[in-house]
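Workshop exercise sheet. Pairs work together: one partner reads the sequence aloud, the other fills in the structure field after running the prediction. Swap roles for the next sheet.
Pair: D.N. / O.F.
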Amino acid sequence: MVDFGSLVGTSGDVTVYDLEKLFATLDVKSTHTEPRLAQREAMQQITARNEERDLVLKISTGAGKTTVGLLYLLGYAKKFKEPVVYLCPTTQLVEQVLEEAGRLGILAVAYPAGETYPDASAMRGRAILVCTYEKMFNAKSTFNRSDVQLLPCALVLDDAHAGAENVRKQFTLRISGDAFTALKEVLAARCKAYHPTKWSDVEFADPLTTLEVPHWIWSDLASDIRLALHEFSEERDFLFVWPYLESILPLCRCVVSGSVAEIAPEILPTSLVRPFHQAKHRLFMSATLADDSLLTRELGVDASATTNPILPPSDKGLGERMILAPSLIDPDLDRGFVIRLCTELAKTYKVVVLTSSELLATDWVDAGAKFYVGDTFSEGVQKLRDSSSGVNFAVFAQRYDGVDLPDDACRILVIDGIPHGESLIDRADAQMVFTPGGVRNRTVFRIEQGMGRPVRSHADYAVVLLVGADITSYVGRNDVLSAMTADTKNQIELSIELAELVRRSNPENPELAVRHVVEQCLGRDAGWKDFYAKKVRDVARPIKTVDSARINFANEERASYVLAMNNNAMDAVQQLRAAINAAGISGEERGVVLQRLSRIAYQTDPGEALRIQQAARADCSSAAIPPDAPRKPSSPGAKTVAEKFCAWFGRFSTANAAVIEAKKIADSIDLDGKPRTVERAIRSLGEALGADSSMPEQEFSAGPDNLWFWGARCFVIEVKNENQNTLHKTDSGQLHDSLQWARENYPEWADRISPITVAKVQIADNDAHYPDDVRVLGVEGCRALGTALHQLCQKMAMQGPVFLTPANVLSEMTAFGLTPEQLLSRHTSRIQ
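Structure field:
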């Protein structure tokens, strides 16, 4: 074939960077003859800012960001005649980008996993290279091979929020087997001395336990850890990660469980990834990005780009989603009801279920759903998109992104359970008390990502069902709503209003009411569409504000860690300390960032670092306990029991969400469960009842299993639910030790301490010498307390917010037998 373009000079090349003009030169398919208005606006802003290195484009799903990203790269490929790369979170999205490029008449080629050499046309800048984040960011990337040396002049990072999580995975080392044993041997003595209880759980392979190794212990042992793990460096799990971490171990976090451990940097050293770090131009695109600072902190995006994102004015936002939490309509509309409902709906519509675990997926499989996991995931997505496949009912576990199911591929989406992260560090972060979804709001993000799977354009529509007491009460919390994007928050708030409307439409038969309202959406009922338009589409979209202070702090924190990674910890400490003060961070979040400061400071001044850690712990109970710090919960504040209950109830955006949380607590107090599970349930029960509730033995490795400062009493609680016949001498001895601990640490409460043993039995062995005033909280007592809490919340929900006052709450708590004195007299019994 003759290259006629080369014979007439460079008329086919675009040396002036103008995306609209570039689009006009393409041989596009008939479906793409004209860009949409939102696309045109994005092109214009990108063109005007094309000299900037980093740009952030925030545009809704289905608004055409893939087209914009391809044009962005094509313009630079023609301008510089150098390689350009389009990054996607999943292989499925790689395929979609290639298809879109074909429709636009743009040459694009894949660079799949396992392929060493990229297409020659891409190396010359004649084609756009499309691959996953993993392909570029792993430590043995073929981009860096001596016989490849692929350094793109421009990058597009699609679904950048999900991409950032994918990049973090490439810097996270998961350790198991012999390597885990070797790591434990190094950590054992120091970690056991730090927290005997949790380390004992680790040694007994408790699957629920997690222990984050305190940074001073980790730093002290870094050389030994490096030596112990280096012998595994050629194993597959290590091969693609260890080179990133080996030289910066002291600045990494380590979380240990009963069978695995994870090591990851606090701040990702993305400068080690040459194709990313040295690219002249980078475009970060996302439809779901509530926390703008994440891109700067995680990926090093210029703060000027995140504070000034490209926001096409004509972007119409999300498609139509009817979000329903059936248990908010009626607490009896539980998970079993939704499974039955979806089984029926799957006869007419395509139903997709996203579960938080493979265990939850089995119930859906029993109901007729096909389970796609691992290598069959892509097959499942394709079958759902194929109208002739016969697959109408599918379930995926732990897949909240990369599942694009537009139009009839999914009309009913079910999110079953809170989508906690898969990693140990995610689990540890999700427990941080100052944020509802972990340090990076990962849980909130995964819920938003999941809810977006079936609605892939402004014209699309679907019903989204939230199933399970955990996720229903979670999204009902005010702090969770505030962490969501404005569009999702509006739709969740609409779902709360919708729940009330459905409840009132047929109070005698809520099951039928739910079925009817679902059919109204799927049947395109004109009244529903008008209602949705009035409540969501016709409402002026809020002006998206940018939290410049948070972005600037993220930028300074990242710069500080870069200094520390380059062996300049002293300057790093000064810079981060100044940034913390300038940002005005306070409360529990301040405690978390002070702990990060302490980690850096420990590299040059251990004494000062531990003083900083003391301040971190004072601000945030999630921070590690430094040496010589008091190992006890704080003394209770001045608020009354009723005031604390009002505050707990007020955390939820709807009263029914509080009712569901109370029911979840009641159901969790199961004395047939594991002791740790019961201890957590007792803590949650105490919090709901207005007690200052803690687990000293778990949190401090000292004191009782549970401690309640409730009203005028201090309850010292030991959980012995595994005893099947009697209570033993060792049990009474442990209670005596806990009582002595309480008297020594809280002398002002010494004459108001009440000992309680939670157990299925109330008979003690002859040599078990329990205190005379000890009480046993048994199966019936636990059940009665849980039921009374649930009924109290139902009563408060029925009365309405005007009655949520301390005086009325105190009266109702007394009526339901939920005062400290009634706990002793009504719900517990003497030991025999």
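Discussion prompt: Residues 8-12 have pLDDT under 50 and may be disordered. What would you look at next?
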